[in-house]
Amino acid sequence: MSETKISLAVKHLRALSQEQLHDLLLRASKGGFTLGDAIRSAVQNPDSSVGAYAGDADSYDTFAEFFGPLIEEYHGFNGTHVTDFDVTKISTEPVDPTGEAIVSTRIRVGRNLAAYPLAPLITREQRLDLMNKVSAVLKEKLTGDLAGEFYPLEGMSEETRVQLVQDHFLFKQGDRFLESVGANRDWPEGRGIFHNADKTALVWINEEDQLRIISMQKGGDIRAVFDRLARMVEIINASLPLSYHPKYGAVSSCPTNLGTAMRASVHVKIPFVSARPDFKEICQDLKLSIRGVDGEHSESKGGIYDISNKRRLGVSEVDAVTTMYEGIKKLLAMEREMAAAAAV
Ligand code: ADP
Ligand code: CIR
């Protein structure tokens, strides 16, 4: 009989003692989130890999006996998060010197505002208020090469929306995992995207997290993408009261995003390596995650994969990007070897 894979949420729920479970079931976070709410996505989607969400920053403390071990298992870390955005520590050596393998590079971080509940609990009025405040701040504070406009999702033509999604700039409506936890309520109202003229500096508002700060461009210049992101984060940090946890760093609604809340990815052509039966294990050993070209839970197209750092907590921002950089370097070396062997 094949073994059914259970989500981290179910695994760590089962690990609680009867007394702990009873105690946790009687609690509610400051915003009124319960343990039932936290695991609803896992219950409704048995194929969840994680299956837990927080409704507010306090959920991580109120249900610490549940979230603590789950977060430790996912990130492999139980210390205090340390931040480091120093771009001079990122290698200047191009990871893909011929420019043939890497299609594009993207680094994003998630952020939430301290004064509002997270997506599962935020009210319609709070969401609208947040969108108006944040979009005004972005328009005022992001200047020079970062200067741009805010485009609300509500009222956007379907043609524009589809094009932005296809070009990898805009989010889609949250998936069934987010639907279960209430993060898709009132869609598309209160959501939107800010971007500069050439769409290399972007901010998503009120998707899974209230802010997703994104830097991206064609090709494999990871350092340039990191540099732009660091500048955006510094300006936004100084302009908005964001939510940070003393142990977990940047607060996010999904526990996989805590810490740096950073996903540094490349869209990379690796037809040989990706065809290996141990491709997943290779990436796991390199501490990398694999996604398809249209984002989470999507498929690869034409041997192109979205490869990113897996850990976001217990690594600094520099470490997260360097993990991706070093891992891609190794995958590309393997790809070249396999291509050369196939050519003889
Ligand atoms: P997130 O990265 O914000 O967690 P997704 O995995 O759903 O969420 O990705 C969001 C969008 O960003 C998708 O359209 C995805 O294809 C795009 N994307 C991710 N990495 C890259 C990249 N390196 N180059 C271009 N687009 C990318
Ligand atoms: C899940 O549990 O499958 C979804 N809630 C997404 C979790 C985050 N993604 C990931 O670890 N790949």
Structure in a nutshell:
The chain has twelve helices and ten strands. It is α+β, with helices and mostly antiparallel strands.
Model description:
This protein is of the alpha+beta class and 344 residues long. It has 2 domains: 8-75, ATP:guanido phosphotransferase, N-terminal domain (Transferase Creatine Kinase, Chain A, domain 1, Orthogonal Bundle), CATH 1.10.135.10; 87-343, Creatine Kinase, Chain A, domain 2. The protein contains 12 helices and 10 strands. It has an 8-stranded antiparallel β-sheet with strand order 2-3-4-5-1-8-10-9. A hairpin with a 4-residue loop joins strand 3 (192-196) and strand 4 (201-205). The longest helix is centred in the last third of the chain and has 27 residues, at 317-343. The radius of gyration is 20 Å and the shape is globular. The termini are far apart. The relative contact order is 0.15. The model has no long low-confidence stretch (mean pLDDT 96). The structure holds adenosine-5'-diphosphate (ADP) and citrulline.
